[in-house]
């Protein structure tokens, strides 16, 4: 099944649990009103990672990219039985548990295993599906590989942190096991012969094989426990009344065999529809949306990052009384901390950590996080630019009776800006590419949209080539514009 929460998210979860008021937890356990809250709100937010056909994946429906699959059908059934509307929120699988614990989503239906480790942090319903595992291979190797024991001396791939990844590591001999975060990346590696096989769940294996004539599936013969091959719906810990209510829906789904009778066949139809037209021009709207969000994130982050950078640079250069020294110390600590932590962690902290107190949309969270990150780097550029201005400029301005503020504003900063313009341009170009990080929280920028297209078409290379070209066009155009203004400033 899908990958477990990685070390990074484990740290985030630990932080979240630490900052949560203990009184609220105690109250939730004493008086569970989870069912009442959902029914009163009238909306049930389902978190999912739509990259796992036929459980959940993207398909083009009436010209619009939509999340479909058997898990979506289950979500609709649950919402209908609760008498509320269903809202689907897409994000990476690794982010789902944190999103549930911080209230970003109300439930998770994403082919998730109800493992003992996960049960410590969330509440699961009864299982709604019992699966198994296959190994996907290139059809030309069908005579060579029969099961997991056939890969001696070869390379077997699986999603990092998943039960099949762990099984491949522990239950194969003389086999190199390679983990990747995306199933589509694994299939791409398989077809480019960087892997000999990919271990995945049976329905997903069947989905890829049925839509790609170059692939075949063989039994894995992994020795797996029932919890490692089953799927259940996850809710926040202590949501007893809500879980009990949803269990009735799950029991009905199993009793009427709706998964195999209705939900899987419906998902199969969407899978076939996806492969009718897999040309990249067919998905121009998806790429255009990605460009739009990438530019929104970049422009806003550059604007706010520049303002933050100026404030931090001036604060770092403050000298004098206790207040100014304290301001300098705080600014220095901020710059060093931001530059010393990955942007991905910062994005997740803003979205999930601050989300405990303010329910920020994913796009807003991404802009805030990237602006805060950019501000730390811009501050150093500006500080270096200010220091590069000859001290005689300051002395001349002061001799004319200009105040410190006016000297900085009208004399020093304009010259500093001219000196650091290439560095600021570099930062702008970098932000265009770094905006891809916000895809982890479900912002529909270029990387996110390319993953949608890959999920839709089962084509691994073509969408990558398209976004490479698009990123180059964006960065090349931006470079030419910045160079134009640089030349104008040099001649000013």
Automatic annotation (TrEMBL):
Transmembrane portions of the chain: 293-315, 349-372, 461-482
Subcellular location: Cell membrane
Keywords: Amino-acid transport, Cell membrane, Membrane, Signal, Transmembrane, Transmembrane helix, Transport
Matching CDD domains: TM_PBP2 (cd06261)
Main location: membrane
Molecular function GO labels: transmembrane transporter activity
Signal peptide: 1-30
Entry-linked Gene3D superfamilies: MetI-like, Periplasmic binding protein-like II
Record GO cellular component, one term: ATP-binding cassette (ABC) transporter complex
Keyword Membrane: yes
Ranges of residues in domain ABC transmembrane type-1: 291-482
Gene Ontology annotations of biological process type: amino acid transport
Membrane topology type: Multi-pass membrane protein
PROSITE patterns the record matches: ABC_TM1
Membership in a protein family: Belongs to the binding-protein-dependent transport system permease family. HisMQ subfamily.
Protein name as catalogued: ABC transporter permease [Lactobacillus sp.]
Species: Lactiplantibacillus mudanjiangensis
Lineage: Bacteria, Bacillati, Bacillota, Bacilli, Lactobacillales
């Amino acid at each position: 099944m899908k990958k477990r929460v990685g070390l990074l998210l484990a740290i985030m979860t630990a932080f979240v649990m630490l900052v949560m008021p203990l009184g609220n937890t105690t109250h939730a356990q004493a008086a569970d009103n989870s069912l009442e809250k959902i029914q009163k709100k009238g909306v049930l937010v389902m978190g999912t990672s739509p990259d796992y056909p036929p459980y959940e994946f993207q398909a083009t429906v009436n010209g619009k990219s939509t999340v479909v699959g058997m898990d979506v059908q289950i979500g609709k059934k649950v919402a209908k039985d609760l008498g509320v509307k269903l809202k689907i929120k897409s994000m990476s699988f690794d982010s789902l548990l944190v999103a549930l614990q911080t209230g970003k989503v109300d439930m998770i239906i994403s082919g998730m295993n109800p493992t003992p480790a996960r049960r410590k942090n969330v509440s699961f319903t009864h299982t709604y599906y019992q699966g198994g595992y296959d190994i996907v291979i290139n059809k030309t190797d069908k005579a060579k590989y029969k099961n997991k024991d056939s890969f001696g001396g070869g390379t077997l791939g699986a999603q990092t942190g998943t039960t099949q990844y762990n099984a491949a590591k522990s239950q194969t001999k003389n086999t190199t096991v390679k983990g990747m975060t995306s199933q589509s990346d694994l299939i791409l590696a398989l077809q480019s012969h960087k892997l000999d096989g990919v271990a995945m769940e049976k329905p997903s294996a069947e989905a890829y094989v049925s839509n790609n004539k170059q692939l075949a599936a063989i039994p894995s013969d992994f020795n797996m426990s029932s919890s490692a091959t089953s799927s259940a719906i996850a809710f926040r810990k202590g949501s007893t009344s809500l879980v009990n209510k949803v269990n009735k829906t799950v029991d009905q789904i199993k009793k009427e065999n709706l998964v195999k009778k209705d939900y899987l066949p419906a998902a199969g139809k969407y899978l076939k529809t996806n492969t009718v037209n897999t040309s990249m021009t067919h998905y121009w709207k998806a790429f255009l949306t990605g460009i739009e969000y990438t530019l929104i994130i970049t422009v806003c982050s550059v604007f706010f990052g520049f303002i933050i950078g100026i404030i931090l640079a001036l604060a770092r250069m403050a000298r004098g009384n206790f207040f100014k020294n304290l301001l300098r110390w705080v600014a220095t600590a901020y710059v060093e901390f931001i530059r010393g932590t990955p942007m991905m962690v910062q994005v997740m902290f803003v979205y999930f950590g601050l989300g405990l107190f303010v329910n920020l949309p994913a796009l807003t969270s991404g802009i805030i996080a990237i602006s805060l990150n950019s501000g730390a780097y811009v501050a150093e550029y500006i500080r270096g630019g200010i220091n590069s201005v000859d001290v005689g400029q300051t002395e001349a301005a002061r001799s004319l009776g200009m105040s410190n503020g006016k000297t900085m504003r009208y004399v020093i900063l304009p010259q500093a800006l001219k000196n650091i313009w290439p560095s600021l341009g570099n930062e702008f170009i970098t932000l265009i590419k770094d905006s891809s990080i916000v895809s982890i929280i479900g912002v529909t920028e270029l990387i996110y949209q390319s993953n949608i297209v890959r999920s839709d078409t089962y084509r691994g290379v073509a969408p990558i080539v398209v976004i490479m070209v698009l990123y180059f066009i964006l960065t090349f155009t931006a470079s030419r514009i910045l160079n134009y203004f640089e030349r104008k400033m040099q001649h000013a």
